[in-house]
Amino acid sequence: MTEVGHEDTGIPRALTVEGNLIGYPTKGNGDVDIMTMVDGTPAVCASESSTLVNKNCVRVARSQGSLNYDNIYILMAQAYWGNEAIVQTASTSDTTGIDTTVAGAVGLAKQLAAFSITDKTLYFADDTGFVYQAPLMPNATPAALARGQMGITAIVADANNAYWANGDCSIMSVPLK
């Protein structure tokens, strides 16, 4: 086993890997960090209040309000994560902490239930039971695929259908347009 890095204050949750980058949302401080894995040199993601210094770590988002800890993606040097009822993105090398909205839930939703990215398309579900599809681009307008779903826990899609798991143990699907 080899330690590739560590977080000094947050607790890393979902992981994503692309090349020598590994990214994750952190529970406790609400950050989204991207580590560069270098042989023999563990990365360090340090908080501003720490005496440690970031080493091979880029904090692409800071103190997010309500992170989705179950999903994160790195695709073509862009990180994608959920915060409140929206999916956000930033370059994996961006140290400004400024991110861009990809798409968000409509209406009274307060939190993402799940999201996934497939073939340049974002699929996501919110805490009010809606399932959406949106192009993977800034400020995309989502299209509702389903509503009235209960306790969505996961979502994924293939070339023909979107699939999601509900809290009642059902797995649902809908054809893609």
The SSE order reads EEEEEEEEEEEEEEEEEE
* Strand element count: 18
* Tertiary shape: elongated
Number of domains: 2
Structural class: mainly beta
Runs with pLDDT <50, length 5+? none
In round numbers, the mean pLDDT is: 92
Number of helical stretches of at least 4 residues: 0
Description:
- By secondary structure, this protein is mainly β.
- It folds into two domains: 1-98; 103-177, Thrombin, subunit H (Beta Barrel).
- Helices cover 0% and strands 51% of the residues.
- The chain is built from no helices and 18 strands.
- Strands 2, 3, 4, 5 and 7 form a five-stranded antiparallel beta sheet that branches. A four-stranded antiparallel beta sheet has the order 8-9-10-11, with no helix packed on it.
- The mean pLDDT is 92.
